[in-house]
Amino acid sequence: MVNDFIFAIIGEEMGFVGSCIVLGVLFLIIVECFLAAIFAPDMTGRMVCTGMAVLLTLQVFINVGVATELLPNTGIPLPFISSGLSSLLSLFGGMGFVLNVSLQRTRN
């Protein structure tokens, strides 16, 4: 399956630098989710943002672990890159919630 091993394809075509760029962009998205959780005005917003950050972290970790043969094949897609439509739509919906929470930041 090409979708499960998309990180291996990225590494083959773009090399180490391309793989680091992809992981760096995903890391920045995860950090922004955690920052939105820190500045969320209520506990529900914190939980939504933290949940999305943990979901993205686990999906990236498992997918890269499978692509580098450190973990057994599980079929978890790489967030925002693999072409699975249901995963992509649910991630976009979750990130929409995170963006909504981040627009309601409290200033101290």
Fold and architecture overview:
- Helix content is 70%, strand content 0%.
- It starts with 5 loop residues before the first helix and ends in a 6-residue tail after the last helix.
- The protein has one domain (6-102).
- With 108 residues, it is mainly α.
- Helix 1 (6-38) runs antiparallel to helix 2, helix 1 (6-38) runs parallel beside helix 3 (85-102) and helix 2 runs antiparallel to helix 3 (85-102).
- The chain is elongated and about 45 Å long.
Please give the share of residues in helix: over 70%
Biggest sheet: strands, sense, closure? none
Given helix and strand content, the structural type is mainly alpha
Radius of gyration: 15 Å
Low-confidence stretches: none
SSE sequence, one letter per element: HHH
Total helical segments: 3
The tally of structural domains comes to 1
* DSSP, total strands: 0
How far apart are the termini? Answer: 49 Å
Shape: elongated
Overall mean pLDDT stands at 91
Beta-strand fraction estimate: under 5%
Short description:
This protein is an all-alpha fold and 108 residues long.
Strand-helix topology:
Layout: H1 6-38, H2 43-67, H3 85-102
Q: What key attributes describe this structure?
A:
mainly alpha; 108 residues
